Amino acid sequence: MSRPDPAGFGPIGFGPIRLATVLLATVPLATVLAACGSEQEILVSTTASANAATPTTTATTTETGTGTGTTVPDTESTTSSPTGTESTEFASTLGEPLDLSDFADSEPVDLAVRPGTSPRSFLVLRGGQVIRLADDLTPDEVVLDISDEVRAEGERGLLGLAFDGDGSRAFVNHTGLDGDTRIVVYGVDEDGTFDESTAVEVYRLPQPYANHNGGEILVDVARDRLLVPTGDGGSANDPDRVALDPASPLGKILALPLLADGTVGTPEIVAVGLRNPWRAVIDGDDLWIADVGQGEWEEVNVVALDRLDAATRPSFGWSAFEGTHPFNDDQAAIHAGLTAVEPITEYQHVGDRCSISGGAVAANTGDSTWYVFADFCSGEVAARCLIGCEPATIADVAVGTVPEAVAVLPDHRGRLWVLGLDGLLVPILSDR
Fold first, then answer.
1. Is there a smaller number of Cβ atoms within 10 Å at the N or the C end of the chain?
2. Nearest CA-CA partner of 244 in 305, 314, 293
């Protein structure tokens, strides 16, 4: 099995490959075998821990305005600046990992829900397979295998999957053998099998470098469109200055109309200024994006779906800013002329931390909104209260540890799962 190389999943992507050894003190551990036929020991925390605060968080509040770098009022929110205080409002733990070792490529990178009368969840493996999961989320069978069409190395591969509103079509985001990003639509049979004879490539994006390929794809059902967040093309520091360039599709959110005749329309740029939006989720009327940082700051952005418009094109700031911190001075004036979306939260690379590899909003039972995320390098899984919280009293709640965590995503029942590149699919058990 091919492994991501450090140049691909490195600090400019997901972070250097290493087995996470940062474990929560006093937490019992479950030992499972790694995928790929090795007997490397992987340690996964399986006990709740609500007493570990992330050391560095920056407070950010969205404001109203347009132009001159002002911010879009997408969500009324204030993030915390923890000083070691504890929050026990999110009791959570990791369950037992599911066994994916029967599959030749056991590198899960995405989890998608097919809607319909009987919703089902589907797991995406980077090497080119999609697995239908049973109701209990155990692997059922392979419903798509395009391994011979996918270049799976570094940050490339079969990376994203989404279904349309009635589940009759599936859209995949994968890297072709030539290194280009390809968006392909498939018809889906009643049992969830993809009909490969119906495959149509609806968009191709040339990639100038091997990293920062993005990989997410989402269906905005209310607006009949596909949303494809794209990376800035790769290398490091936005060398070609494409993220804020309106003429380039790189570092953007692209919207592809889903037309009444069943075809897919020409993509439009509906937002700019992204670096490597690896995982994103739609929660209600909002899009949450984990955008991987360059060297020091990770950020999470929230934008209302109706703000994503080709006429206004809000800016997430890269590469004028890394999070809320000035970065490329020559891009500052461009960003200042746009309507900005400030991060709802960010955190600094300290210790082994290097990348928010993805996150999702926990189902809410009260007035607060919790974002659950993981770090690729440290393997830490944590929950952070972002909306409806008291900033002075809220700290991150540690959930556990999953080595090489690349995503936190919901299944068809709303339960969150952590996907680990070493072949792990781990449930988050919580009170939410």
1. N
2. 314
With b for 16 or more beta-carbon neighbours within 10 A and e for fewer, the 303-316 pattern comes to bbbebbeeeebbbb
Q: Which domain holds residue 357?
A: 29-430
Amino acid at position 224, single letter: D
- Tokens 């779906």 map to which residue? 305
User: Residue 168, preceding bond cis, omega within 30 degrees?
Assistant: no
* CA–CA dist 394, 94 (Å, integer): 21
**H or E, element range at 179:** none
What CATH number does the domain containing 188 carry?
A: 2.120.10.30
User: Which positions ≥6 away from 120 have C-beta within 8 Å?
Assistant: 113, 114, 132, 133, 135, 192, 412
Q: What is the pLDDT of residue 9?
A: 41
Number of domains present in the structure of the chain:
1
The pLDDT tens digits of the residues spanning 54-93 come to 433 433 433 333 333 433 333 333 333 333 334 446 888 9
The number of beta carbons lying within 10 Å of the beta carbon of residue 88 is 9
CA–CA gap between residue 37 and residue 323 (Å, rounded): 39
Reported residue count of the chain is 432
Q: How far is it, in rounded angstroms, from Cα 147 to Cα 13?
A: 23
Residue among 50, 76, 53 at smallest CA distance from 64 = 76
- Specify the amino acid at residue 23: L
Asked if residues 314 and 336 have their Cβ atoms less than 8 Å apart, the reply is no
Q: Is residue 14 part of a domain?
A: no
Residue 16 lies in a domain: no
311, 48 Cβ separation under 8 angstroms? no
